[in-house]
Amino acid sequence: MTEKTFREYTTDQGKEYAQSRLDYHPKLYDTVINHHKSTGGQLNALLDVGCGPGNVAAALSKHFTQTTGLDPSEGMIKTARAISSNNGAIRFEVSTAEDLGSSSSGLSPPIADASIDLLTAATAAHWFDMPSFWRAAARVVKPGGSVAIWGSGNLRVDAGTPNGEAIQARIDAFEEELSPYFLPGNWLTRGLYRDLGLPWSVEPAVEGFEEGAFWRKDYENTEEFLAVGAPKVDLVAFERMLGTMSPVTRWREDHPGAEGTEEDIVRRFRRDIERLLRESGVEDGQERLKGSAQGFLLVVKRK
Asked: Within a 10 A sphere around the Cβ of 204, how many other Cβ atoms?
């Protein structure tokens, strides 16, 4: 199924996404670069796929001579260009993960064959058609290059949070209410990408990658995965962050007029968390909510 929620984002939605989503931890970026270099990867050209507002491309561009970010959403690309307008070393273009800027996609100049040293996809691969993506990756990634894919899932409240058991139950209920609006990609993140198609497991298999060099790193929490470690955010920011989830967007499309009101699914969730905190003695229910999620990083090497 083709993902449509993010693909149809407007520029305003792209700006809200950029402002509300947490960036990745510098240690995660360092892990990606260090593994890439230690396995023979070079640092000439970076391609970030499903780049969204461009945070990954911007963070990693300092390591590379050339950086390109691709996303199928014109709204996201306009946002990325605006945010990175002072960084002339990054090129942002509209393209799908299945085309990867091929000449047939209309991208000019196209992403040349065997031109990319490191291809990254952050919290995006669950929306790709993986057989088509791997065929395209085999075309553009240089021999010895790397494909690094990562994401996170399964929100958990910190054990030390006041009334934490009840809050965790409310988090679980929130996801259960949203589950009718999950697409297969959302379930892939909840499964920590363990069922994500890899070059040797998709049908038909894609040649040109080293199965024996496949590397996976799991993060039991986000201490070294998200920019602020185990995120501790105020509930207003937490509500905004949850509002960028694709199932929430689909829920809101199915409930016109609810967004921004007390009937909104995320607003109801936030109010319940505030109530549970107040019941534990936290004044006004405004304690910052400390939580975490499981992270995962997958690296595939090009022969």
From this structure: 7
297 alpha-carbon distance from chain centroid: 11
Count structural domains, the chain: 1
200-232 confidence digits (pLDDT tens) = 999 999 999 999 999 999 998 777 787 654 455
Residue 162 near residue 281, CB atoms below 8 Å: yes
- In angstroms, the CA 282 to CA 286 distance is 7
What mean pLDDT comes out for the span 13-37?
82
How far, in Å, CA of 268 to CA of 244, rounded? 16
Would strands 45-49 and 66-71 be described as parallel, antiparallel, or unpaired? Answer: parallel
Distance CA 237, CA 241 (A): 6
CATH of the domain at 254: 3.40.50.150
Is a pLDDT exceeding 50 seen at residue 90? yes
Residue 199 has pLDDT above 90, yes or no: yes
Residues of the domain holding 87: 5-302
Cα–Cα distance measured from residue 5 to residue 273, given in angstroms and rounded to the nearest whole number: 27
